[in-house]
User: Fold this.
Amino acid sequence: MSEAQGAPFSGSIMVVGGGISGLTTALEAAEVGYEVFIVEKNPYLGGRVSQLKQYFPKLCPPTCGLEINFRRIKDNPRIKFFTLADVEKVAGSPGNYNVSIKLNPRYVNENCTCCGECADACKTEIPNEFNFGIDKTKGAYLPHEMAFPARYVISPQIIGTEDAQRCKDACPYDAVDLEMQPKTVDFNVGAIVWATGWEPYDAAKIDNLGFGQYPNIVTNMMLERMAAPNGPSKGQILRPSDNKAPQSVAFVQCAGSRDENHLPYCSYICCMASLKHATYIREQYPDAKVYIFYIDLRTPGYRYERFYENVKSDENVEFVKGKVAAVEDGGNGKVTVVAEDAVSGEKLHQTVDMVVLATGMQPTAVNAKLPAADLQYTEDGFIINDLDKGGMFATGCANRPADVMMSNQNATGIALKAIQTMVKR
Amino acid sequence: MADKYLVQPDVEFINEIRVTGGESLKKCFQCATCSVACPIAPDRKPFPRKEMIAASWGLKDKLLADPDIWLCHNCGDCSTECPRGAKPGDVLAAIRMMAIKEYATPKSIANAVNDKKKLPLLAAVPAIVFIVLGLLTGLLDFSPELNAHGEIAHAQFFSTWLVDLVFIPLSIWAVAVFALGLKRFIGDIHKNAVAEGKTDKESIDTKGFLSALVRVIPKILNHRQFSECSENNDRATPHMMVLFSFIGLLIVTAVFFITLYVFGIHGPYSQLHPIKILANVSGIALIIGGALLIKQRMDKTDEVSTYKDWYLLWLVLGLGVTGMLAELTRLADAAFLTYLIYFIHLMMVFHLIAFLPFSKLAHLVYRTVAMAYNEYSGREIKKI
Assistant:
């Protein structure tokens, strides 16, 4: 957090992305003595994990896990991080990279105490991206209650309006600075780790599954936000059309995954995510029915298999082998999903209150091209690691679809690879 | 479904599907998207997912006797939505061709009709038959005179007697081959439907079956199922043109036949004669329909088209083109040309009739029967 005080070893590491993989790589490298810069595009660290209600393997809330990492960052003088920052340019070769980072203005300085006066004063509302647009937030906002750094953000959308001035006037600590300008900072680093993570696949592209057409069809990440205690409905899972408690929910596995018309690969996490979501729903609504339509369930490893067995023993959770390939209006806001049960050979029309599309992960780099020219990608946009060449590496979901546990294991290994690049020099 | 079943894969059958246009078969991972994507698959035992796994396992007997392969109109919606590019539409088309071969006797003709290398040989068959029979009987006149009205008449060159001498037995042959095939086919599809739980009927009662047939014929004529497709919807109209022009030409031929043998009236007819108008309209529709079908097949590169498809399509277009050209060259007084084209036209008609039960065109009979059976079985085809 504080100024780097000169690393005991030569060379610094830049970590692009402050999600769980990036944080792990940064901490592992810093705690053995290397100087690390974390570049994060969001106004907060923690990435996708911070959006979850619980995460595998132990079903911890994100506070457990992320907070300890934030503590370690605060305590470590060798880590410096930048939020609202984009990598603009990368030049050089392994051991010697020049990186230009664009720092976008937050319009709120370190005087902020999170009192919230600015948000109260602000009249404009903008879609809450942290909640996938389910609800709205003020133009001056704290991204979420656990946000680190704990500091408000003024949206660029209200800059130049009276609202921005109202926020500034309301702040008792002189923390709002509307004159902040974007600036570019240059760094010289020995290695770069791309921990750019993933985005949920755009469900609107799957035209036979009705996302965007029926309000009660949501994605798995939207359900995660609904279920999270800091979510739009304070943890209550409610049907979007009328905010009623759903009595039946259907999960559509492989929604746009393992499908050459969308994502041809398996995203690894969606089966476990839906099983976990089934537990959220069943805990909240003891009478609710859950249907999980799948091609085949992938629950790798002993722990995950046991989790699956537990969910399967719940008689209100029904598993149907057959992919949902069409949806219809079920009347009264309900949705009917259509699938062939491949075991019985009958076509089912299941009408439910809410449908959850288990969409997969798409590497962020697909939709936001990285500025490093000599990175190699798979056809699907995952970064291929060239360990012999070294210098630049990908970790976590920038490299392949993975859960938190695998991401952390991989991130630790990549920290060592980044260090090796500089030791070789 | 619950009882145990020992799978005995017929590997040769699997390979044959793959070379007949179903090469993508093994990409299927049984997600069942296709059964939902299909606009005409029923809720009760829908297709084509179950056909895809049966094909992967090489269950030949199960597939060839499966009426559902015929309910499929190859609209391609399943192939478009298939997440693996397994193209169930193409696989079912390949299985249908193999079913045609299976129910046709003799097999050697079925194999020859569907073998590209045998085409020159098969093309030569009608030419030889015509020339040998014509010379033996003297009904083929290579230096024909004009008719009583001083016009060119094809019958002066290729006697009507010779035409009928060849085509009447040939038609009887085609009917006989179909009759033999259908006898087995109907028994087999019923057994299959009972075994797979597609019907509650225990046996086929002829009256019920015939009344089901009467009910499906209008559906076939107006292409109701065909038009449900979204992917290959543009094929429905040209296909309808071809079907109706064949029906039109069948009527024309029957009328000519009756007037000739009953009333002793010879052609050619005046262009203004109603039956001639029907003939000309049908001929033109045949050319347009055939050409459009060929164009659509050529444009649709993501669908597999094999020899079985091209043989039939070019034959259809060839029949239309040679038929119309024979008429036009006759009216233009181009004697040599018109006789030559007429001869070729008759060769093509020979192919159409003689190889009808062996070529893809046999779908005319098998699909009609399977649709009638499905109607009879009480397993309704429903829109999702």
